[in-house]
Specification:
It contains nine helices and no strands. The relative contact order is 0.15. The N and C termini lie close together (6 Å). It has one domain. α3 runs antiparallel to α4 and α3 crosses α6. It is an all-alpha fold.
Length: 286
């Protein structure tokens, strides 16, 4: 290797690129999805879920007809309520994204996060419903109007999540998924009123139903309402964290190309120096 007279050592030409790499990959201080509010919300949610377990499994009495199997009611009703709420929030957030005055990808992320949690809770609803059906009807599944429409609603929102996973920009993802969400939410009234629209072996609403003669014990009613509140708090806690994760994922996607190009430029500069191109100090290497 030949060097020009009086030139500085070549090793100094690689210092800027190696020194800048750790700064680009380091984790920002305080990065995460938790805040003081979400931490307190998590504590309240955990306490309320513990209370539901205590009242639902120990303190509330068994049913005079269904016996101990009635305890599934506290999970079944609470999760289906949250699933309905989640899908409605998805539709409202999608409409907010499409409206020009509130057009923001934040609404799209809320819609996506809410739909994911809604699908999770709807899966729990179907699972507890099948267990309850096995104890009450002698089978895990019947092609009942309420059961079938609920399963169809679940599949629809699984499809919504699949649409969100298709390729394209963030804006393309938001537009197409918003349209699907506004169409899918129409199924909720169909599911809710299916007991009245068709012959159904599924019972009507135990609390708000006008045609049912079911009377809940006071402690059973309290436990049911407590479970509904607890699952709602859990849903809010989940959505807050999930939409923040989605924000980080979108930011990573946006910056990923810039980081890749910067890395490629550093590689090209390094290769240029090693192949005989002039360095920053005026050196020429062979």
């Amino acid at each position: 290797m030949n060097r020009n007279e009086g030139s500085a050592p070549v090793a100094t030409t690689h210092t800027p690129s190696t020194a800048s790499a750790p700064a680009m990959t380091s984790r920002p201080r305080g990065a995460g999805t938790g805040t003081t509010f979400t931490r307190w919300l998590g504590i309240v949610t955990l306490a309320s879920m513990a209370a539901v377990a205590l009242f639902g499994l120990v303190l509330s009495p068994e049913d005079v007809v269904q016996g101990e199997s009635v305890r599934i009611l506290y999970v079944h009703v609470g999760t289906v309520w949250v699933a309905y709420l989640a899908f409605v929030v998805t539709a409202v957030s999608s409409a907010a994204y499409l409206w020009r005055r509130t057009h923001s990808l934040t609404w799209d992320r809320i819609a996506g996060a809410s739909a994911e949690i809604g699908v999770l809770f709807m899966a729990v609803t179907l699972l507890t419903g099948s267990l309850w059906g096995r104890l009450s009807w002698g089978t895990f599944w019947v092609w009942d109007a309420r059961v079938t429409t609920t399963a169809f609603l679940f599949i629809t929102y699984v499809g919504y999540l699949a649409v969100r996973g298709l390729g394209g920009s963030h804006e393309q993802r938001a537009r197409r998924s918003a349209v699907v969400a506004l169409l899918a939410v129409i199924e909720i009234p169909l599911v809710h009123f299916s007991v009245k629209l068709w012959r159904s072996v599924h019972q009507d609403a135990s609390v708000a139903g006008r045609t049912t003669d079911v009377t809940l014990d006071g402690l059973m009613l309290f436990t049911l309402l407590l479970a509904t509140v607890a699952f709602t708090l859990l849903y809010v806690w989940y959505v807050l964290h999930r939409q923040r994760v989605m924000t980080m994922e979108d930011a990573l996607d946006d910056k990923g190309l810039d980081l890749a190009l910067a890395e490629r430029r550093r590689e090209a500069a390094t290769n240029g120096v090693s192949n005989g191109a002039p360095s920053a100090t005026g050196e020429v290497t062979n």
